[in-house]
């Protein structure tokens, strides 16, 4: 293989293995060190929570993994192994397709993430047809299945609707359906439930957990909500000022936090 593949046993089951990543935002008067020598692993079949205060760099990490960071972002060092391949070593022209075949992402505001001018069916079909050389009829069957898989009722009807006709929770499920249509090893969810009310939040988390169980997907869940973390996460990474200051299982982090900042974060959530 001509690109950089992973060495070392540690990440055999890691869908994502970020090593020593540093990323700066170049500004006219200064550079913002948004990510500093960051190491992070998301294992298959596990939910890894990335937690930290606003501005700590969580979304920056997510966007860098997806290769969609802002134009003024410069990655100065590090490797991002996605399904065993360092995406930063893949030439630009092949990088997008490699990433979209191995990772999906959903964002906080599902309605904004969907195209308002296309029906749900058109958007889902478009994603499927970009990935696979199949007929429209086959793509439609996959689309319908995928909507059922995220527990959306009456998928035939739903395919004809536009995003504004759906609730936020339904849009988020459509986003999960789109992001997971080819069962990528990694799904990143950046504050996926922040804009939704509590009962709908629970349904979305249930969908993510089902994906993890059903497909063995590694889920990187970015959230402020420590209640959600305690309930659903397997591993937790605490982020501060662009670095992971502590990592561990949910029990480690909640019952035996070592880092001062982790303790402060937990105390603030009580
Ligand atoms: N395009 C950009 N140009 C300059 N600075 C940026 C840019 N995008 C983000 N930043 C800065 O980088 C830092 C990390 O931002 P990021 O959005 O990754 O934080 P976050 O942890 O996701 O925060 P939140 O919890 O509010 O979503 C912040 O200081 C932010 O202001
Ligand atoms: Mg963010």
In short:
With 270 residues, this protein is an alpha/beta fold. 40% of the residues lie in helices and 26% in strands.
- Major β-sheet profile: 6 strands, mixed
Number of domains in the coordinates?
Answer: 1
If you compute it from the alpha carbons, what radius of gyration comes out, rounded to the nearest whole angstrom? 19 Å
The assigned structural class equals alpha/beta
What's the arrangement of secondary structure elements?
Elements: E1 14-26, E2 31-43, E3 47-51, H1 58-66, E4 73-82, E5 85-86, H2 92-102, E6 103-106, H3 110-113, H4 120-131, H5 136-149, H6 155-159, H7 168-179, E7 186-190, H8 198-215, E8 218-223, H9 226-232, E9 235-240, E10 243-249, H10 250-255, H11 260-269
Parallel strand pairs: 3-8, 3-9, 6-7, 7-8
Antiparallel strand pairs: 1-2, 1-4, 4-5, 9-10
Helix pairs in contact: 4-5, 5-7, 7-8
Bound molecules: adenosine-5'-triphosphate (ATP) and magnesium ion (MG).
Magnesium ion (MG) binds at residues 58-59, 190.
Report on this model:
It is a single chain. With 270 residues, the chain is α/β, with parallel strands linked by helices. The chain has one domain (9-269): P-loop containing nucleotide triphosphate hydrolases (Rossmann fold, 3-Layer(aba) Sandwich), CATH 3.40.50. It contains eleven helices and ten strands. It has a six-stranded mixed beta sheet, with helices on both faces. A four-stranded antiparallel beta sheet has the order 2-1-4-5, covered by helices on one side. Helix 4 crosses helix 5 (136-149). Residues 58-59, 190 line the site of magnesium ion.
